[in-house]
Design brief:
about 325 residues; alpha/beta; two-stranded antiparallel ribbon; 10 strands; about 45% helix; disordered N terminus
Length: about 325
């Protein structure tokens, strides 16, 4: 595995835009969209006969495109295919300096992540790239992957995200539905709650981000928003987008409201003041009619972190009350 043991910085991933690696027009257009992350896809979005050429197309666009402000990811094919190693070698040797992460689909156990880590390390050493800089995103798409999600999350210091792949997952457990992301008929509760929470717990245990998968009804933006709100409410960091029309909705849903962001920053300032010498070294204090303490600070850090990552600006400021 990689020798890098530092805690990896968490990148903004409210919206993760899928872009077919074989489509130059889409690759060009994606650069101008407001997605936090783009992943250039060599897997499902590329027909088998198009994959070899798509690798070189992706290398060209990574090296020559303007991806400013975006996390740059390539999704390779899964290890059960004949394409994976060549996907990784071609892309990382050709454009490793312009690549932030490799996404590995259909991950079923830790060994698959470790194999990718080892291959990346060999390429980095060969090409003179910083060893361990390129991260890994693991996509959970079947029952075995979910059962092993804890060991997958801990498999490599390169790990950055765990991604839910709903379409393949639904098929793997024989879920009675043909609409990806929607509830199966006949079940009165949320059929995805356990899956999403299981992924979230594994991610948070290992300081990773949790990303919800796609919503295939691409023109139904309100349907997308509803499904995204479910994941955001649980604590997920973002969701895939398959169409430009979904980007704005995802960025909005996975960022705090201005009111919540301002309130979180006020809590942090007020708690820092009340625990200071000037504030009386108190363990708790009142912020208006609300009592705040260390637990309040931890909750506020989550909201403020999401707001800062989204580039939000405060509209309020903290002023200590006079004694």
């Amino acid at each position: 595995m990689s020798s890098e043991n530092q805690q990896r910085a968490l990148r903004p991933r409210r919206s993760c835009l899928a872009v077919p690696g074989s489509n130059p027009r889409f690759l060009e257009k994606a650069q101008g969209l407001a997605a936090d992350q783009v992943f250039l896809d060599l897997e499902d979005a590329c027909a088998p006969l198009a994959k070899p050429e798509a690798r070189h197309t992706i290398v060209k666009f990574l090296n020559e495109g303007d991806w400013s402000g975006k996390t740059r990811v390539v999704r390779v094919n899964d290890w059960t295919t004949e394409w994976t190693y060549r996907d990784v070698v071609t892309v990382v040797e050709g454009a490793g300096a312009e690549l932030d992460c490799v996404m590995l689909p259909k991950v079923q156990d830790a060994a698959q992540v470790q194999a990718l880590d080892m291959l990346l390390t060999q390429i980095e050493k060969t090409m003179g790239l910083q060893v361990g800089r390129i991260g890994i995103e693991a996509q959970i798409e079947n029952a075995k992957g979910l059962v092993n999600v804890d060991e997958i999350a801990a498999a490599s210091p390169r790990m950055e995200t765990i991604v839910f792949g709903p379409a393949d997952f639904m098929a793997s457990i024989n879920m009675k539905s043909l609409v990806v992301g929607e509830q199966p008929p006949g079940y009165p509760a949320d059929a995805y709650h356990y899956i999403l929470m299981r992924i979230l717990m594994a991610a948070r245990t290992h300081n990773l981000q949790a990303i919800d998968g796609p919503y295939l009804q691409i023109r139904d933006v309100e349907g997308y928003r509803k499904v995204a709100q479910r994941a955001a409410a649980l604590g997920f960091d973002g969701k895939w987008v398959l169409h430009p029309g979904q980007v704005e909705a995802s960025n909005e849903v996975f960022a705090p409201s201005q009111e919540d962001y301002d309130h979180a920053e006020m809590i942090l300032d007020a708690y820092a003041y009340c625990t200071s010498e000037a504030g009386g070294k108190k363990g708790s204090a009142m912020l208006g009619d609300e009592m705040i303490d260390e637990a309040s600070r931890k909750m506020a850090l989550v909201v403020s972190g999401k707001g800062r990552a989204a580039g939000m600006k405060r509209t309020t400021s903290f002023t200590p009350e006079e004694a």
